[in-house]
C-alpha cells in the first residue's frame, strides 16, 4: 500500500523534472537562435570587424587553404555571440524566473543587463588596452634572424583566450553581490580579505599576461577596483 501511495508523488516529480528539462531545452534553442541572428547581422559587417580585430597585429597570413574560411566562420559566430548576449542572459533569467520571489525577480531584472554591460566592457578593455601591450611585448621578442609570421587562425585563437577571461573577471562585483545575497559572504569578510585579494590579483595578472609589470598591473588593478566596487555594493546596497 505504501508503495502504491508513493507512486503518484513519484510520477509528479518525474513530470516536474520533465517540464523543467523541456523548458531548459526551449531556452537553449532560443539562445542558439539569438546567436544565429546575431551571426547573420555580424556577417554584414564582417569586413569592418576583421579590420578592427587585425589592427593590433598588423598583417596576417594563412598557412592552410581552408584556414581563412574557418577564421571567418569563427569570427562571425563569436561576433554573433557578443551581439546576442542580451538574449542569452534574458533566456537564463526567464528560465529561473518562475522559481523566484518578487524581490528576487526585481534583483535579477537589474543584474542581467548589468552583467551584459560588464562582460562586454571587460572584453573591450582587454582588446583596446591590454592586448596591444601584450602584442607589442611578444612581437618585440623577434630580431633580424627571428621574424614574426602570424597565422590568422592562431592569432584569433589568441584573441579569444585573451579577451574572454577579462569579460568574466568584470563580472566580479555581481558574483560578490549574489554570494552576499545568499548569505555566504558579508562586507566585513570582504574587507578582511582585501590584502589577500591584492596579492591574488597580481598573481592572476602574472599568469594571464606577458611577464612585465605593466601588463600585469593592467590586469591586476582593474580586478582590485572591481573587488572594491563589489564590496561597496554589498555594504551599501544589500547592507550586509
Can you describe what's shown?
The N terminus is likely disordered. This protein starts with a helix and ends with a helix. The chain contains ten helices and no strands. The protein is an all-alpha fold.
Average predicted confidence as pLDDT: 79
Q: Beta-sheet strand percentage?
A: under 5%
The main sheet comes to: none
**Based on DSSP secondary structure assignment, what is the total number of beta strands?**
0
Shape: flat
Could you name the ranges where pLDDT drops below 50 across 5 or more consecutive residues? Answer: 1-6
Radius of gyration: 23 Å
The helix-strand sequence is: HHHHHHHHHH
- Helix % is over 70%
Helix/strand/pairing category: mainly alpha
Helical stretch tally:
10
Report how far apart the termini are: 50 Å
Summarize it.
The protein is mainly alpha-helical and 240 residues long.
Key descriptive features of the protein:
0% strand; mainly alpha; 240 residues; disordered N terminus; single chain; 10 helices
